[in-house]
Each structure stands twice: as structure tokens, then as C-alpha cells.
Design a protein that fits this description.
By secondary structure, this protein is of the alpha+beta class. The protein has one domain: Gcn5-related N-acetyltransferase (GNAT) (Aminopeptidase), CATH 3.40.630. The chain has four helices and six strands. Strands 1-2-3-4-6-5 form a six-stranded mixed beta sheet, covered by helices on one side. A hairpin with a 2-residue loop joins strand 2 and strand 3. The termini are far apart. The model has no long low-confidence stretch (mean pLDDT 95). Bound molecules: coenzyme A. Coenzyme A (COA) binds next to strand 3, helix 3 and helix 4. Keywords: Acyltransferase, Transferase.
Length: 133
């Protein structure tokens, strides 16, 4: 999982990733083929809101629907746990992720300038989990 997050330019340390497994509010879903991890998604469910923290797919397994499937499953579990909305942030210019989240029903609700360490802007997106798409 750490290798995949590094490939995807996700600024999480190994320690941060490992800490996710100890959090009660954290949901982690992993896509595997054989002994190989192909991708994963991590979300937090807090006070009726699902926060999508990380979504990443191994470079050689991208564009095969794995990212979409992981996100859809997380949203389904989050909704089942009683969450009524889902939030996420992504780096401006990450067009693949932006399209994926848009197809999954997320809309842009704001921007945070210079949010990332390198000065990139974050785009905030939200989805109402009470509406059927
Ligand atoms: C964003 C990310 C998770 C998408 O994962 P993915 O598994 O490639 O996602 P999908 O396969 O569901 O969709 C990606 C594209 O493949 C296309 N696709 C899906 N299945 C396909 C198939 N069988 N044949 C051809 N194309 C396909 C989708 O239509 C989509 O096309 P688009 O980019 O033109 O809209 C991946 O690119 C990644 O790990 N990026 C780095 C980390 C990152 O940016 N994470 C998101 C922010 S936290």
C-alpha cells in the first residue's frame, strides 16, 4: 500500500498509513490479485460524514475500473453505517481523479489555496449519500 501511495504522489508517511489500521473510525478496503495489492481506499466515518482520505491504484493496474470499484464500495459501506454525506479533497490538476469522483456523484464545493506542501491548491468535493444516483 505504501508503494502504491508513493507512486501516486500521496504525501503520507509509512507511519501515517500504518496508523490508519489502529483507528476505530477508519475503513480500509484493499483490491488484491493473488498476493499482490492492486489498490486501496481509506475513509473515516465521523458524526454522519464519510471522509475519503486516500484512493490509489498501482500504476500497472490503472484504467481497469479498480479505483471506481473501491470508491463505490466505500460509499456503500459508509452509507450503510448511517453517513449522510461524503467529502474528499484532491490536488488541482488531478484530472483522472476529478473525473472519477465526478462520475461517482461528487461535486466541487470549495478550494483551499496552497494546501499541499508544494503549494498546490486542494479542491474540496462533496456527495449527498441520501440521494440515489
Ligand atoms: C485516481 C486513481 C485512483 C484512478 O484509479 P483507476 O483504477 O485507474 O480508476 P478507473 O479505472 O476506475 O478509472 C480511470 C479511467 O479508466 C477508465 N477505465 C476504467 N475501466 C476501463 C477499461 N476496462 N478499459 C479502458 N478504460 C477504462 C475510466 O473510464 C477512467 O477514464 P477517464 O480517466 O478518461 O475518466 C489512480 O489514477 C491513482 O491511483 N492515481 C494516483 C493517486 C491519486 O491521485 N488518488 C486520488 C486522489 S487521493
Amino acid at each position: 500500500m505504501y508503494r502504491i501511495s508513493q507512486e501516486g504522489n500521496i504525501e503520507w508517511s509509512l507511519g501515517q498509513l500504518q496508523a490508519e489500521f489502529d483507528l476505530e473510525l477508519s475503513i480500509i478496503l484493499v483490491s488484491v490479485s493473488g498476493a499482490q495489492v492492486d489498490g486501496f481506499v481509506c475513509g473515516w466515518h465521523v458524526s454522519g460524514e464519510l471522509q475519503v482520505m486516500l484512493l490509489a491504484v498501482s500504476r500497472n493496474r490503472q484504467r481497469q475500473g479498480i479505483g471506481t470499484a473501491l470508491l463505490e464500495k466505500l460509499l456503500c459501506i459508509g452509507k450503510g453505517l448511517g453517513n449522510t454525506s461524503a467529502y474528499l479533497e484532491l490536488r488541482e490538476g488531478n484530472e483522472t481523479a476529478m473525473r472519477l469522483y465526478g462520475r461517482a456523484g461528487f461535486s466541487e464545493v470549495g478550494r483551499r489555496r496552497r494546501y499541499y506542501e508544494n503549494g498546490d491548491t486542494a479542491i474540496l468535493m462533496c456527495k449527498d449519500l441520501t440521494i440515489q444516483f
